[in-house]
Amino acid sequence: MNQDYTAYRTYLKQHWDEDISRIQEFLRQPCIPSNNIGCTESAQLLMRYYRELGCQEVELVETESGRPGVFAYLDCGAEKTLVNYCMLDTKPADGEGWSSNPFAADLVDREDVGAVILARGAQGRKGPYISWINALRALKEVDGKLPVNILFLAESEENCGSPNYKAFVKKYEDRIAKADAAFCPGAVQSRDGQVKLTLGYKGLINIRFTCSGLLWGKGPQKRATHAAAQALIESPTWRLIEALSTFRDHETGRLLIRDFYIDEPPVTDEERSVAEYVCNQFPGKSWKQFLPMIGTDVKGESDLLSNVDACLKFWYSPSFNINGLASGFTGPGTEVFRLPNQAWALCDVRVPRGYSAQKTIARIRQHLIDRGYEDISMEVIAAYEPCQTSPDSDLCSAVTGILDEEHIPWFTWPFVGGGGPWSLFSEYGLPTLFDVGLGYGGNAGGIDEFLSVESSGACAGIIDSELFFIKFLKRFADSNR
What we know:
Elements: H1 6-14, H2 16-28, H3 39-53, E1 57-61, E2 69-74, E3 81-87, E4 106-110, E5 114-118, H4 126-143, E6 149-155, H5 165-171, H6 173-176, E7 181-185, E8 195-198, E9 200-201, E10 203-212, H7 213-216, E11 225-226, H8 236-245, H9 269-280, H10 287-290, H11 307-316, E12 319-326, E13 338-339, E14 342-351, H12 357-370, E15 377-384, E16 387-388, H13 394-405, E17 410-413, E18 432-436, E19 441-442, E20 450-452, H14 462-478
Parallel strand pairs: 3-6, 3-7, 7-18, 8-17
Antiparallel strand pairs: 1-2, 2-6, 4-5, 5-20, 9-16, 10-14, 10-15, 11-13, 12-14, 19-20
Keywords: Hydrolase, Metal-binding, Protease
């Protein structure tokens, strides 16, 4: 590239206070879909940022849940168009155990990394998203326009399983189909400065099973009755538990759904080689310490797995998890000694490459019918297919080219156990990268979540992370010209 980025760095330095204040402003506005807090207000705030950026179209997209999304388009007359996914929302944060109010977005000093912004969403992913917006503003101000057009598609309910994002995307699919790639910014450097580039995600299926006396024709029909009645009356709660137990072999943990594993391809030699390479990036650590979303305080049969085998199972094996299970007495405000008229379970099923989310849903539904539980309702809240992006795509090459030039260590992560709505863009033929960028933070979704403000050692601060986004856009625009 050999481009001079002095003018951009100068602009970012001159607007440092403004850019930090914008990040803090966004973090101070809660957006917690599970509690229906701040979703509309957050969407309206983001709309303001898009308008300030110069987007010619900015729309609030209403959803059935009442938690809106935002569509915006910035037409720069460019040859290429980038779809930009954004999640406005975060997990809850009650403040217990935090060093300061999780929605104060205070600037505090951490002994190990210096100044940080401490807030829910600081790292995952509200803070990096506004760094991205700041970078777009800087690039536009210095050059007069961006080198690519951008379709912004932001949602406020990723932490509820993105139940309405598919309908949202469908509304704009003609324009998405003409785009060149999809991208979501992040701050993903490890403490030693290394960047992890995730290429693949499992498909995610979010299902609610409900057993009610009314649908079953047994037990309490419209309301709970006294627990003493169970001597004479059937329990929908027991029926749901019994139905759930048929999904799984209690000794082996294998799922008993017919043909559930028929689409699971065997691990290839190349995939095993990649797993060995990834494990070598974490010398002296066990898989519990470096696989994301696991945590070290877990125990089970997988403790006996090698790091390589644990990675392969995490990346390429399907799973069926019960997220929540409720009926009757669930704490203050609910009655004890009741025989409930219904019970529900919220489950997520994760399927790797080779699987179809829709086929899997059909097999689960048929399993209930085959086992005699056709009365149990099965609501599919959201379903997203697995996706994977080629490391040779223009999108990946734009990222890795910058990292190589800057001598920033990086490695590719072929798959993770997570998944989400960004996989929709791969269905339109778009290479897709989620959570990409420089910067260091930690405790995402946990207590004292933070994002580093200043560059420290090998890790980028806010200015360097914003400069990375500028370089990325320019390189992506120039690729294959």
